[in-house]
Amino acid sequence: MDGDGGQQQRLSAYECLVTPDCPRLMVAAHRGCHLEHPENSLAAIRAAAEVGADFSELDVRHTADDVLVLMHDSDVDRTTDGSGQVDSLTWAQIQTLRLDGGDLGDPEDSRVPLFSDALALAKSLGIMLYVDQKTGRTDLVLAAIQDGSYQQVALVRDDLGKIAPMFAADDSLLVMPPIGSQDELQAVLAELPTLKIVEIGIAAPVPDLTAAVHTAGLKVQQDVMALGDILSLVGDYSEWGNFVSAGVDLLQTDYPNLLIPAILEYEETGTFPDKGPQP
Questions:
Q1: Fewer C-beta neighbours within 10 Å, C or N terminus of the chain?
Q2: What is the pLDDT of residues 228-241, one digit of tens each?
């Protein structure tokens, strides 16, 4: 995708997602701005919006009493002061936990959030949520999105077998299945002909597959943490540039504070910078 020289109107993340020829690049902050705030916290989502991210990625799980909360791991051990499996704890029990590294005086920074609260906050901030669905209770996820009319806020990422029934129940839901080949692309298109975006679940740029996705009228998301982010730590942005040159539309990063200024420079000049400041 070529830079637009700043001449075209900058669409919102939702508008760009549903507009096949939207030229601009988008950024997803992996687990929010989790290097400044606890991952999957409301504070991390707020910080992602403040730094200019289009999406804040988060992970959704259900509790023993069928409440949706934000938590990456299947247990709470790594990220909180408690222990136990998320789906074995009740919401009342999870409410007593505190996120490691959070400001105890700030509930957004220290409490395990409800998915519904994350949706409401994102809508108020004008940022979308990249929802990594780590629960089999897809009915609960769909109901939470529908209850608040958050179809323009949430992009649900999961395997085709899980999200296809959700989309069949609500064709206004934005979904993103992962693919790794052109055969898998054709499979998801056969199941979801009005799909807007796919994730290419490969760590490196794949120009041919990206081009095939674009030819089908879809956008591409890829994670750039394994390659691009690592080099960015020494000020080398060349691998990020390779993803951009390959045509990736939505890049997920742990360093939105570095990637976003580089993308804005690309939009202004048409050239993605090879170098940048170290974090």
A1: C
A2: 999 999 999 999 99
CATH fold for the domain made of 13-269: TIM Barrel (3.20.20)
* Reported pTM: 0.94
